[in-house]
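Input set for joint prediction.
Command: fold jointly, output tokens.
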Amino acid sequence: MHWNSFGEFLAMGSHGLYVWGSVVVMAVLMLAEPMLLVHGRKTLVARLKRQLRAEQQEAGANRSPSHHSHNAPRNTPQE
Amino acid sequence: MTDRVINWFKYASPQTFYPLAGKLIPWFWALAALFGIAGLAIGFLIAPTDAQQGEGYRIIFLHVPASWMSMFIYLVMAFWAGIGLAFNIRLSGMMASALAPTGALFAFLSLWTGALWGKPMWGTWWVWDARLTSELILLFLYIGFIALQAAIDDPRRADKAGAILALVGVVNIPIIYFSVKWWNTLHQGASVSLTKAPSMAAMMLWGMLLCALACWMYSIAIALMRVRTIMLERERHTDWVRELLDEKG
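tokens >
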């Protein structure tokens, strides 16, 4: 261990502001980037799922011939 | 031989690459944390004081890895962009796009930590000399690449336009690297004042190399994460993405 006390470690030989200013900014940005990515990915997946579900519902609605035929036995092939 | 060729093409398809990348990401994060903790422990707790710069030199453990990564990521980005341009492989363009923001981040961090190092050592935050100016141009190249791609709606055309910008910008990398040799500059030379007693030189070097390795692993993990998001977005109309979204419920 190079340091005699925690205070000495923080002071960095009177260069504390510059050293810790570098460390803090680098740490914050390198933590923020993956967090933003995870958040962006979740938002994207949610959006794509919504779109997919909307498309599937639309396709399902198109498949039934009319509003009255809901109870009629289905003979249209389900792909 | 044939098998190998087929394998490469197999992994060049987003459908195969997506799950593979997903499996690799945690490993790269673990390695990044491991190397990062080791490098910072050596750099900030064990490495001795620098004879000339006192304790302020410890910024080196952040500044040099960030600067190396900013240059190296640009080369990798330009490589993928060039491959994409030449062979029209979807994955290449996506990789280039995935690397740009992280390259920009490291270019910014290089300038930031450099300014904070310059103030106590040179008495100024910034000078318009060759090394600093060319690194600033690197940051602008990254931002230009990202902005250009964002401005073009069709991803394939965005890839092509971005690739040309990235390839032209490669000329800046040797300029940054050799600037301290070619011009008179305030910035110190490439050797990291390792000409002192071997033991302390070794500790400084180890700290720096481990921090650089951590930044490497971080960059790979981040690039894989981002490329997966880009894949989902761009391939959202394909069957494999639809199946994936269905599976996730």
